[in-house]
């Protein structure tokens, strides 16, 4: 006999037939047909609230506890009003949550736990045997909470099943067979073929079929770590199957790891997920207590090798009909149960298949550069910056994000670091939201171009901003306006140039160096300095003094006169030597 309990009250709805479908790493679904003497029941107070189906079989109660997610009016039958109800787990409600956000420096189980808690759910239990690495940056991008936690579990080899009671359904997260319970009783189910309509007084298997499926026997992963560009990160695992072509390999990149040992763990998980489709058994019988995730030992199979321990990865429970008589209220009749089960050997590791796709960021995005408070520039040793994505409602800082430059060599290349407050262009490697890369910068309403446009549309170049506080700049610009072409170089404070060999300058018309500082110095370290005015004049002027010096000899010009001072002075004229003065003093 099967009974239905809902918040509508006892006997408001009486179960007529139902089917429960449950599977490892899938939300269960319990579909119930129920009858009522009332037409037009109001299900608004019941939606998303707990309901319970209790199946009494072989002296035990098997519970199917879930939240009402659908209710359908389906007509009139036997003078009663028929309704179809669908019960699902609280985990299914996460299919109706969606977000854009990220998590940093957390393990996959920690992220999953946080998602559950923030959604307001606590009926779960971790039974994990493995350790999990911290993820530097993990993005939930335009996907439901359910898809997000599902793909994280699939990627790291975590799967789940449910434990039902009269009060709740508990989500159990596992990664090894030791986390699985055995069926109620002694944990054993005999194989007893059905003969006629004879009903057994104990749970049993009636039909048993074995399956084999060709699967890839090797899984290889690879990745790249920019901090260790030469690191060998290729990792693989191989199965022990011996059939033809059993060593067929699946290779994938990137594996999302930085250490080869972690790559081996992930390759093992992928291989076990691939191999989990082989060596399956399909059974039919009367074993309502055999839930998805439960283990049992088969007995009484004529092939002794089949009498082993198995875990149910899928179970379908069907109550085909309960007859009712309308006498003012519904009353239950005979129950007919049939179960279908998909099983795997319990001595083989199980992993759920990777069926949940990871979101792909199509095209480019922009983001805002953020950093430490009070700073204008925040970078790490690799010149990476931190971002605030426009889609992040929590306005958190991202992980360190690499910045593309025009050149990047070993101690040489271009270096232009975006500053806090700038808008930058972000690409994602292979569209992976966990792998952002800054490839450019943009002007916007807060950060205007340095030259008024369109008036200065012919100017190209670079203009920086003094940090901290601004009020100064360095600049290199190219003015391409016809007949006004110009290259302008501006240094806010110092300008240092080093030429290791030769320098040549050609000035077509005018050359006018000027300095606003107290001094200017030209020094030739080795060799000669030659000034040659081929045509015209050369003029050298100074307001205070001009001094020419060679060793101890000097020629000084100042407003008071000219002084020539040397150990020996020779005056030689080819034709005439004129000395004028009033008076002329010698010695």
Chart the SSEs and their pairings.
Elements: E1 2-5, E2 14-23, E3 26-36, E4 50-57, E5 60-77, E6 80-88, E7 98-103, E8 106-107, H1 108-119, E9 124-127, E10 134-135, E11 138-144, H2 145-156, E12 159-164, E13 169-174, E14 188-190, E15 204-210, E16 218-221, E17 235-238, E18 249-252, H3 260-275, E19 281-286, E20 295-299, E21 309-319, E22 337-345, E23 365-370, E24 386-389, E25 402-403, E26 423-428, E27 436-442, E28 459-463, E29 475-479, E30 486-490, E31 546-550, E32 553-558, E33 561-565
Parallel strand pairs: 9-13, 14-20, 16-18, 25-27
Antiparallel strand pairs: 1-4, 2-3, 2-21, 3-6, 4-5, 5-6, 7-11, 8-10, 12-13, 15-19, 16-17, 19-22, 20-21, 21-22, 23-24, 23-26, 26-27, 28-29, 29-30, 31-32, 32-33
Shape: elongated
Helix content estimate:
under 10%
| Radius of gyration over all CA atoms, rounded | 42 Å
Percentage of residues in strands? 25-35%
* Separation, N- and C-terminal Cα atoms: 141 Å
Runs with pLDDT <50, length 5+?
none
**Sheet with the most strands?**
12 strands, mixed
CATH C-level category of the largest domain: Mainly Beta
What is the CATH T-level topology of the largest domain? Pnp Oxidase, Chain A
Our count of helices gives 3
pLDDT averaged over residues: 90
Instruction: Give the total of domains.
Output: 4
The total count of strands amounts to: 33
CATH architecture of the largest domain: Roll
What would you call the structural class?
A: mainly beta
